[in-house]
Design goal:
This protein is an alpha+beta fold. The chain is built from 17 helices and 19 strands. A 6-stranded antiparallel beta sheet has the order 1-14-13-10-9-8. It is extended, with a radius of gyration of 36 Å. The relative contact order is 0.12. Mean pLDDT is 80; it is low at 428-439, 519-524 and 600-653.
């Protein structure tokens, strides 16, 4: 665990802090009561296509009760596209150099390599598992939250260090050290509703449901104080109604009561606190008045503070990352498909059930016969039934209802309207660009890039909105590694590249390397990336050959001075154009790929096979004797070629 600075509280300061937390929690609970108890369960039922009544009794018992899962269809489709946009591109995040710094390219590459490894590795961030539920919930209900705390997990282990059976040693084994992302149960997370971004909130409360074993473990590790004071006051001894509703679809697997089972609601509160009175301090003494970011763990039933520390995360940030599907004006919680498509799912389901019920009624034909004593009061209508009548008539066939015109077109219209509202429809973008054999949906790499980069529909905006927390999480994780340090055991995995990773994850390097909010690669597709590299290889080869030919021509004694000046300007233009091209392909350290040509020094002996620099008028060797070497066109001693022609050509300004 990262080093934490504990708060020392006097009696008056502790009472003031408890009052502040209790009032805030009570206010936040009232703000979220309807959202947690009514709306979230209803939207989840819409996704699961659970009918309001298990068995319909109108217009007759066991009438049609089908729920068309429109919310689930659109949610899962967008969820699949978001997961593909993140995990089917390598690397997961790109890094960019800010400005021009010598040696920044190895650090940039080390940042990408390290972040890609920890993001995909199940023993590290394990983002595929975390994102799977994180993004599905964000699309379904509009909002989802990940908590990214810095953790250090230590277990006891016996290690055999000798040859005898007695040579066993008990040691501490660090199984994990670093940020550990996990999705937060949305009913257990509260933020002021008018907050527009989680990083701007002045108070965030996360309810952690703990068992007795979890509390005793934190007591043993010295993380929590006053644990004994709350063990006798559990928050519940049976699962909550929210938990029971979530366990309904698990095939009968549910939390059983009894056997000493109990839960304690522990609130971990992250907030900005205004210290006004004396009594607030730390091990080094009291702190002055002002605003402090603090993290306080609080048990509401017993009004007990289990832990109070000053915020230990870099830049006073908090470890929460939120995703929202559709942003509302001046509000935090987003609008998901469960809310946006609720009415359309009910409408389509009602149309389908009415058509099924009408078909059932119209297919129920029966017969009327003369009354007879054998007919009793328990007569029921069913297909082929006989109904007694008193009139003198023969047996006649009757129909209970008429089949009204089909409403299938109306149902299809409802589905089309749902697609317009959600923006989720079949992937038609990019069709015609790289399509293979004229088959719709079969694309080459260029067609896939075209389809993903066109980006002019609502789905593209939604995917961009959901990529933002992916980038925000990377930035926070990178800042934590730079602040707390990358574990040596993790660096050892990368061999010689570990030294660059260690340099890249420093506070100084954070200001030179950034992770922008863009797609993982400019080309979206790894196959396209390879094609771009091959294309650049050919282009650079032509550039290198061109510059070499220009240098040979400049050194040629037979080349007139005016031609040399033109060749130098040509080399300058070609180099500038090549640098512009490399920037367009997102290569930051251009000097590694576009070298600057240099010329020899005056008086330097010519190497065997090297071209001779001709003597210039007024320079060494101008008497025609050919003695010595003269730099072309006024080059100073040791001055690189490109520095000379950037200042202009002598005689030409």
């Amino acid at each position: 665990m990262a080093e934490m600075v504990k708060m020392t509280l006097g009696r008056e300061a502790e009472a003031s802090l408890k009052t502040y937390i209790k009032d805030k929690l009570e206010w936040l609970k009232k703000c979220h009561q309807d959202f947690h108890l009514n709306h979230l369960p209803r939207w989840r039922k819409m996704y699961d296509a659970i009918p309001r009544q298990k068995t319909k009794s109108f217009p007759w018992p066991n009438a049609a009760n089908l729920v068309i899962p429109i919310v689930a269809i659109h949610t899962d489709t967008l969820h699949a596209r978001v997961m593909a946009a993140i995990f089917r591109t390598i690397p997961l995040w790109i890094a960019r150099s800010i400005g021009t710094h010598e040696g920044s390219e190895p650090l940039r590459e080390a940042t990408e390599q390290f972040m890609n490894y920890i993001g995909m590795e199940p023993s590290q961030l394990d983002l595929y598992r975390v994102y799977n539920t994180f993004y599905r919930e964000a699309i379904k209900v509009g909002t989802s939250v990940i908590k990214l705390p810095w953790t250090k997990e230590v277990t006891k282990q016996f290690i055999h260090e000798g040859y005898s059976e007695a040579d066993w040693k008990l040691t501490d084994l660090v199984t994990y050290e670093g940020p550990r992302p996990e999705k937060v149960v949305l009913e257990d997370w509260m933020i002021p509703p008018q907050t527009t971004h989680e990083d701007k909130a002045d108070f965030i409360a996360h309810r952690i449901r703990m068992t007795r074993e979890m509390l005793e473990q934190r007591k043993f590790l010295g993380l929590y104080d006053n644990v004994d004071a709350i063990l006798g006051s559990p928050s519940r001894t049976s699962p909550s109604s929210t938990q029971q509703s979530k366990e309904e679809g698990q095939g009968g697997v549910k939390t059983a009561t009894g056997y000493g089972w109990a839960e304690w609601d522990i609130y971990e509160c992250h907030f900005l606190y205004h210290v006004r009175t004396a009594g607030f301090g730390w091990t080094g003494g009291e702190v002055g008045s002002g605003f402090y970011r603090v993290i306080v763990t609080y048990h509401e039933e017993t009004d007990t503070i289990l832990r109070a520390v000053y915020n230990f995360y870099p830049d006073n940030m908090h470890p929460f990352v939120a995703a929202r599907l559709t942003l509302r004006d001046d509000a935090f919680y987003g609008k998901g498909f469960g809310e946006a498509l609720e009415g359309m799912q009910e409408n389509a389901s009602s149309q389908r059930n009415q058509r099924l019920d009408n078909g059932t009624m119209a297919n129920c034909r029966f017969f009327t016969v003369l009354n007879s004593p054998k007919w009793g009061d328990s007569l029921r209508v069913y297909p082929g039934a006989m109904i007694p009548v008193t009139s003198q008539e023969d047996i006649k066939e009757r129909q209970l209802g008429d089949v009204y015109p089909s409403s299938f077109e109306e149902e299809q219209g409802t589905h089309a309207l749902a697609e317009r509202v959600s923006g989720v429809s079949p992937p038609m973008q990019g069709y015609g660009s790289g399509v293979m054999q004229g088959k719709r949906g079969v694309y080459t790499a260029l067609g896939t890039m075209s389809m993903l980069q066109e980006g002019n529909r609502r789905t593209d905006v939604q995917i961009s909105d959901l990529r933002y927390p992916h980038i925000n999480l990377a930035r926070k994780a990178r800042a934590m590694y730079a602040h707390f340090g990358v574990p040596e055991t993790l660096l050892n995995y990368f061999g010689d590249a570990g030294q660059f990773i260690k340099q890249a994850f420093t506070l100084e390097a954070l200001k030179r390397i950034e992770i922008p909010i863009t797609a993982a690669t400019a080309s979206i597709n790894r196959e396209v990336e390879r094609q771009n590299i091959l294309m650049l290889t050919n282009q650079l080869g032509q550039f290198y050959q061109q510059i070499s030919q220009l240098m040979v021509a400049i050194y040629n004694p037979q080349t007139p001075p005016e031609v040399r000046q033109h060749l130098i300007r040509t080399a300058q233009s070609a180099t500038n154009l090549e640098e512009r091209l490399m920037k367009a392909f997102d290569y930051d350290d251009i000097g590694r790929f576009v070298p600057k040509p240099e010329f020899g020094q005056p008086g330097q002996a010519a190497q065997p096979g090297a071209p001779q620099v001709p003597a210039q008028p007024g320079g060494p060797g101008a008497n025609g004797t050919g003695q010595g070497m003269a730099p072309p066109l006024g080059l100073d001693q040791g001055q690189p070629f490109y520095q000379a022609y950037q200042g202009g050509v002598p005689g030409r300004g």
